[in-house]
Amino acid sequence: MSSTGFLIFETIIKAIVILAVIASLAGLGTYAERKVLAWMQRRVGPQMVGPLGLAQIVADMIKLATKEDLIPANANKLAFMLAPLISVTAAFVALAPVPFLPEFSMFGHTIHPILSDIGVGVLFVLAVSSTCIYGLIIGGLASYNKYSLIASMRAVLQLISFEVINGLSLIPIVMIVGSLSIIDIVNAQSGGIGAWFIWKQPICFIIFLIASFVECNRTPFCLTENDPEIIAGITTAYSGMRFGMFFIAEYANMITYSILMSLLFLGGFNSAWFVPGGVMMILKSSFFFFLFLWTRATFPHLRPDQLMSLCWKVLLPLSLAMIFITGLVLL
């Protein structure tokens, strides 16, 4: 097979693997969240369907696939149907420039576990993942439901505000490395644990971590859907697989940001001591995914005014200060 043919074949296979693996992990994420929340709240969690309740994932998939797909009578049908597609598509496209593991050889070819190593990987991930907001806004507005409408307005409030913080928190990292490529940022941390950017930019890490919770619609920094509410926020009027697609998009975003934080601040797929890089990558990403679940069982939701005060009065000045301080140090 020629090099061009193998490249095309490799790209198609990697795209299929990313879709299959991330979608499967999103399903496993729902099981993991139930188990973690049950463990922290002294409950049992899924245990009746299959060994340890693992078949509960399959049962949920069957339920969502066979449940009646309802569209409200006064809803904008086209927009209503497109909204979950926009969210889930943006969630998966954002994974394109993300390197999952270190490169390895197979059949005499070097395999790069990344779909597309573009030079502006960080910017691409932030830009594409932010388009998930359109799915949330359109879904809320098209539902002809006052609860969905209110939730969509809260989504605009939080996501647009924190997208600014999300980008500003990574500018010091880009200034240090001199590149927007995620691969270059990981390679800049190849000097061992001491070279990780979490030690050089701890405030930027905390800011990006908080912004990641907002981008993934996770407690406590979430306004699109509050757990104490009886309704389901933007997805109030959705059922069946359309409702499931919003769930898949949310968990896919959690996986994306778990991997991204590992790559940008914790050395990514670089090996540490005797632990191979691939294992380190899985461990670090799993920790951040667990952190998303842990906080939901621990902290209450912030009020909209508290979240906005945190964004504009605390995180924005800190982000700008870190950019200024980093610039002075580099000069």
Entry summary:
It is a multi-pass membrane protein. The protein is mainly alpha-helical.
C-alpha geometry: globular
Number of helices: 12
Rounded average pLDDT: 85
In spatial order, strands of the major sheet run: 1-2
GO molecular function, one term: quinone binding
Subunit structure: NDH-1 is composed of 14 different subunits. Subunits NuoA, H, J, K, L, M, N constitute the membrane sector of the complex.
Enzyme class: translocase
Membrane topology: Multi-pass membrane protein
Keywords:
66% helix; single chain; 331 residues; two-stranded antiparallel ribbon; mainly alpha; 12 helices
Structural overview:
Its main location: membrane. The protein has helices spanning 3-40, 56-66, 77-93, 121-130, 132-142, 146-177, 182-187, 197-200, 202-215, 240-265, 277-298, 304-330; strands at residues 104-106, 109-111. The chain is mostly helical and 331 residues long. The chain has one domain. It has a two-stranded antiparallel sheet with strand order 1-2. The longest helix is centred in the N-terminal third of the chain and has 38 residues, at 3-40.
Topology summary:
Blueprint: H1 3-40, H2 56-66, H3 77-93, E1 104-106, E2 109-111, H4 121-130, H5 132-142, H6 146-177, H7 182-187, H8 197-200, H9 202-215, H10 240-265, H11 277-298, H12 304-330
Antiparallel strand pairs: 1-2
Helix pairs in contact: 1-10, 1-11, 2-10, 3-5, 3-10, 5-6, 6-9, 6-12, 9-10, 10-11
